[in-house]
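The data are passed on as follows:
___
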Amino acid sequence: MNIPRLGPMSVASPSTAQSHINSLPNELLNTVFMFVLFDNPDSSDARPTLLQIGRGLPPQFVLMQVCKHWLDLCTSLNSAWTNIVINLLPVNLQRIPPPGSPTWNRFAVACKRVLKWSEPLLLSLQLENWPMNEDAVRGVSGMGLNEQVLTAEGYCYRILQLAISQCKRWKDFSLVGYRPSNPAVPWAQLMEVAHRIPMLESFALVHMQRKALRSLPQPDYTNLFLDAPRLSCATFGFHNPTLNLPWSLLKVVAIDSAGFESYRQFADYIHLVATRTTASTVSLINSMPMHILQDTEDIGLTLPTIENSHISTLDLLSYMVLPPLRLPNLTTLNFEVSHTSSADRCGVATIEKLLRDSDCHLLTLMIDQRMGRSGVHIMAHLLPYLDTLENFTFTGTAIDEFTVNRIAEQMFLLLADPIRLPKLLTLTVNIDNSQLARRDVNPFYCSFDSRLGKAVWEIVNRRMTEWPEVRLGRPEVILKSFHVNVVFQDAPVKASTSRELLASEEWYSIKAAGVDFKINPPVESDSADDQSRPGRFF
C-alpha cells in the first residue's frame, strides 16, 4: 500500500484561525441571542422583560449597545419581546421625576418601541403598580396617543393606551394595582378592547379599590371579556362590577380576597362564582383585611353551603375564612396557615370544616406555614379526612438553624401510627430560612443533628423499607419518596454543621436502606470508613 507523504504542517495564526462573530449567519446569531436572554432559543416565556424608570437596562438593550448590527438584529428578533412587564412606578419613589421632566416622554417612547418590536407575535403583557384612581384617570382621559407625556399620571395613562392598542395580540394581560393609592380599574378605557381580544388566554385585574365606583361606563362594560373565545384563566376580585365571563371556557379562576369591603360581599361573590364556574382549579389570593375578618363569625352561621362538583384543585394562597363550601370532587388542596389552634376560624379550622363538609377523596395536600412558628402538629385536626392522601408537602419557616430537625421529629410523630395517612406515597418537607435574615442569623446556614437522623430513620424503617422483618403493622402502601429541603430565597443553603448526623448509626442505616430519601443541601460524609460502620435495620 502506498501511503502519501504529508508535507510539513503549520498552526494557523490567531488572526486567521478566528472569525468575527458577526460573520455568523443572522439566524445563528438570533439563536445565540435567545440562549443568552432566556436559556431557551424558542421562547421568552420563562423570563419576562422588565421595564421600569430607574432600573438597569434589560439584557436585550445591553446586546443592542454592542454595535449597529446587533441593534438591528435585536429589534427585528420579535420573539425576544413577547413577554413584557412594565412597572408604572419608578424604582425610587423618593426621587420621582418632576412634572415636565423629559424622562416621562422618553420612557413612554421606549415602551412603545418595545411593544412594536414583538409584532406580529402574540404578546404577554403585565402593567404593574397601576396607581390611578377615578379622579386621576378622568384628569388625563382626554390625552391623545401622540401628545407629549409630561407627568406621572400622563405616563401611566399613555402606557395603558399603548397596551390597549396591542389588544388584538394579547395572549395574557394583567393590570396590577398599587394598593396604597386606592387604584381603580379604568373600565371606560378598557372597553376599547371589547370584541377585539380573539387570542386572549388569561387576564388579571387585581389589587384594585374595594369601594364601588362613583360612576360607571356604558351598561355593557360587564361584557368586556365575554367575547374571548380562547380565554381559559381569569383573575379578579371586586364585587362591583360583576363581570359576565365565558364561564364554560374557564379552566382556572382566581379571586383576589382583599378586594371586598365586607365579609358578606366576599361570601356572596364566592357563592356567585361557585354557582357559575365549571373550572377545575380555583384560587383565592391575597389576605383579607383584618376589619373584614372580624365580622365573619356571626355572618358565617347564616350563609348557605356552596356546592361545586367541578372544582378538583383549590389553592388558598392567603389568610382568610372560607364561607361554607362543599367540593365533593376535590383532590388537590394547597393552603397557607399561620394560626394553628382548632378554635381559630382563620387557621386550620376553616380547612377542617371544608374537608368535613366536602367528604372528598383528597390525593394531594400542600401546607405552607411561613407565618408564625411552624409545626406539623396542625395536621392532627385534619387526619380523619386524609385516608386517601397520596402526596403531602409541608413548607415551614425556620426560626433558628435547628428548625429542620424539630420539624422532622414532628413528622415522625405524625407518621408513627400506620393507620395515619395509610395511602401516602410521597413526602416533602421544605424549610424556608428567609425569616432568619431579619433576626441577624445567617440564612445560608443550617444544622443537621441526631434528631434528624433518628426521625428520618424511623420514617424510612416504618414506611419505606420492604424487609419482611418489619412488615407487621405497616400501612397499606410503601412510601416511595421522602425529600427534605432547606432553602433561602429558593436557593439551597449550605449545611455548615452535620457532624452529629454523620456520626449517628441512623444515618448509615438510611443510606444502606437504598430508598428514595434525599436531603438538600446534600450531607457529605467526611469519614473514610463510613461504609464499614454498622447500622440499625429494624
